[in-house]
Specification:
alpha+beta, two-stranded antiparallel sheet
């Protein structure tokens, strides 16, 4: 049996009916000649990302959902965490300006078709923020996956959040 990397995890089985329905709708329209993806929208993907961060990394979700700049705290409560989630075909991560920045950034890629998630970035947020404008901006700014990989190369082993869930589903 192969051993997955320490950044990969299985999505809950309860997600499968949503994925199956999406695939059925996509395939139905492809048979009619429409090549549409019917991808999950950003809010749904973001909520799944936060749920995975809670289950897999022990993040303590903040109760007030209006906190700009972070989604939760590390299990010890000492650092804030911002979670970004993306599908496998997404080529960049969107950021909205906030005066408050998280201590840690966790970018999760969720492959709903395969039922797998993995961390593509797990480290201090400030490494990624070097690719964003310093002054306040309006709307969203994108950080490409290539820049995310550049930032990830700077992360020390002691700067990563460890996975806390022992999961026998893999």
């Amino acid at each position: 049996m192969s051993h997955p990397s320490d950044t990969e995890f299985r999505l809950p089985l309860e997600v499968r009916p949503l994925t199956d329905a999406r695939i059925a709708v996509r395939d139905y329209y492809r048979r009619k000649g429409l090549n549409l993806e019917f991808s999950f929208d950003g809010n749904l993907v973001g909520d799944f990302g936060e749920a995975c961060a809670v289950e897999e990394y022990g993040m303590k979700l903040v109760k007030a959902r209006s906190n700009a700049g972070f989604d939760g705290h590390t299990p010890d409560g000492k650092r804030t965490i911002q979670v970004k989630a993306k599908g496998p075909s997404t080529k960049s991560i969107a950021f909205t300006y906030s005066e408050m920045h998280a201590d840690h950034l966790l970018v999760l890629e969720l492959d709903f078709d395969r039922g797998i998630g993995r961390a593509v970035y797990n480290g201090p947020e400030h490494y990624v923020r070097t690719f964003l404008p310093g002054e306040p901006w309006k709307g969203q700014k994108q950080v490409s996956l290539s820049k995310l990989r550049q930032a990830a190369a700077r992360i020390g082993d002691d700067e990563r959040l460890p996975m806390v869930r022992v999961d026998d589903r893999l």
